[in-house]
UniProtKB/TrEMBL annotation:
<dbReference type="InterPro" id="IPR006132">
    <property type="entry name" value="Asp/Orn_carbamoyltranf_P-bd"/>
</dbReference>
<feature type="binding site">
    <location>
        <position position="55"/>
    </location>
    <ligand>
        <name>carbamoyl phosphate</name>
    </ligand>
</feature>
<dbReference type="GO" id="GO:0044205">
    <property type="term" value="P:'de novo' UMP biosynthetic process"/>
</dbReference>
<comment type="similarity">
    <text>Belongs to the aspartate/ornithine carbamoyltransferase superfamily. ATCase family.</text>
</comment>
<dbReference type="InterPro" id="IPR006131">
    <property type="entry name" value="Asp_carbamoyltransf_Asp/Orn-bd"/>
</dbReference>
<dbReference type="InterPro" id="IPR006130">
    <property type="entry name" value="Asp/Orn_carbamoylTrfase"/>
</dbReference>
<feature type="binding site">
    <location>
        <position position="105"/>
    </location>
    <ligand>
        <name>carbamoyl phosphate</name>
    </ligand>
</feature>
<keyword id="KW-0665">Pyrimidine biosynthesis</keyword>
<feature type="binding site">
    <location>
        <position position="138"/>
    </location>
    <ligand>
        <name>carbamoyl phosphate</name>
    </ligand>
</feature>
<feature type="binding site">
    <location>
        <position position="83"/>
    </location>
    <ligand>
        <name>L-aspartate</name>
    </ligand>
</feature>
<dbReference type="GO" id="GO:0016597">
    <property type="term" value="F:amino acid binding"/>
</dbReference>
<dbReference type="InterPro" id="IPR002082">
    <property type="entry name" value="Asp_carbamoyltransf"/>
</dbReference>
<dbReference type="Pfam" id="PF02729">
    <property type="entry name" value="OTCace_N"/>
</dbReference>
<feature type="binding site">
    <location>
        <position position="272"/>
    </location>
    <ligand>
        <name>carbamoyl phosphate</name>
    </ligand>
</feature>
<feature type="domain" description="Aspartate/ornithine carbamoyltransferase carbamoyl-P binding">
    <location>
        <begin position="3"/>
        <end position="147"/>
    </location>
</feature>
<feature type="binding site">
    <location>
        <position position="176"/>
    </location>
    <ligand>
        <name>L-aspartate</name>
    </ligand>
</feature>
<comment type="pathway">
    <text>Pyrimidine metabolism; UMP biosynthesis via de novo pathway; (S)-dihydroorotate from bicarbonate: step 2/3.</text>
</comment>
Length: 329
């Protein structure tokens, strides 16, 4: 793997499969009475969040702590950033504190890349979402979830998603999750189709490694996984569709539409959900919806990313009795 994780497009197939396989090992730790590993003891991970977040921030914090790293949570609100401090000065402060990895979420697309290439930070930089650009660890946890559900946790080791048909539905224009998923799923051999109103399809999408459709009902019967995206009204300054009701009628997933999917197909959502708009409560609460699994899998996947980037000096997963001994020291 490279030193930083900025874009899903930076990952080769071997890199992606290595992360997914390592995440599978990390997931087994969650079933133990003691869930901590000593692999990143003495390392410092900083969560640098310039945007509000619940799932991603807590997930990275849990991942780092389970690997025994020291964690510093930095929020722009209530910090010197709110007084006008620049990204550079914030980064230099973190470097002075000895950060081995900086996990950054920023409202500006490209901020993580700037941080990684500026020389301000000596450690690794992980993109936890930048503007409408990318969110690579979300794509990794989504791929991990798909591989577990569609291939199986045991049979999945060393495997990719070759031949699987993945449909991503909704606000593609403003979705960093969609962009990262298209890149990663293509790398893993999946066939991706984007479905959205014409107004929510990005300019230049024809260069992406995917198909585009405007007819959800035509795509559902041949989908192995359907990922519903949240309509990001906070990023919209115009009317991209007539009404919420019209959007739900054409692009929302309800029980009737779910019934048209293959029997073993799954429904995904990166959260938070707009229930009743892009997805109904009936679908969100069904056994076929993996939204809660995705949250749990996010911790395992981010543990794998931090472990591989920071090059833990010990095996990723020690024998259980050793892990208990380390914890009780």
């Amino acid at each position: 793997m490279k030193r930083h994780l900025i874009s899903a497009a930076d990952l080769s197939r071997d890199d992606a499969v290595l992360i997914l396989d390592t995440a599978e090992e990390m997931a087994r730790v969650a079933d133990r009475p003691i869930k901590k590993l000593p692999t990143l003891r003495g390392r410092t991970v900083v969560n640098l969040f310039f945007e509000d977040s619940t799932r991603t921030r807590i997930s990275f914090e849990a991942a780092a702590k389970r690997l025994s790293a020291d964690v510093i949570n930095f929020s722009a609100k209530g910090s010197s950033v709110s007084k006008g401090e620049s990204l550079k000065d914030t980064a230099l402060t973190l470097e002075a504190m000895g950060a081995d990895a900086v996990v950054i979420r920023h409202h500006d697309s490209g901020a993580p890349h700037r941080l990684a290439t500026s020389g301000w930070i000596g450690g690794s930089v992980v993109n936890a979402g930048d503007g409408t650009h990318e969110h690579p660890t979300q794509a990794l946890l989504d791929a991990f979830t798909m591989r577990r559900r569609l291939v199986g946790p045991d049979a999945g080791i060393g495997r990719d998603l070759a031949g699987r048909r993945i449909t991503i539905v909704g606000d593609i224009l403003h979705s960093r999750v969609a962009r990262s998923n298209v890149h990663l799923l293509n790398t893993l051999g999946a066939e991706v189709t984007l479905v959205a109103p014409p107004t929510l399809v990005p300019i230049g999408v024809e260069t992406w490694p995917c198909e585009v459709s405007y007819d959800l009902d035509a795509v559902l019967p041949k989908s192995d996984a359907v990922m519903m995206l949240r309509v990001q009204r906070e990023r919209m300054n115009a009317a991209f569709f007539p009404t919420e009701r019209e959007y739900a009628r054409r692009y929302g997933l309800d029980g009737d539409r779910m019934a048209r999917m293959p029997e073993d197909a799954i429904v995904m959502h990166p959260g938070p959900m707009n229930r009743g708009m892009e997805i109904t409560a009936e679908v969100a609460d069904s056994d076929r919806c993996t939204a809660v699994e995705q949250v749990a899998n996010g911790v395992s996947t981010r543990m794998a990313v931090l472990y591989l980037l920071l090059g833990g000096s010990e095996p990723a997963v020690a024998p259980q009795n050793n892990a208990r001994t380390e914890e009780n020291k």
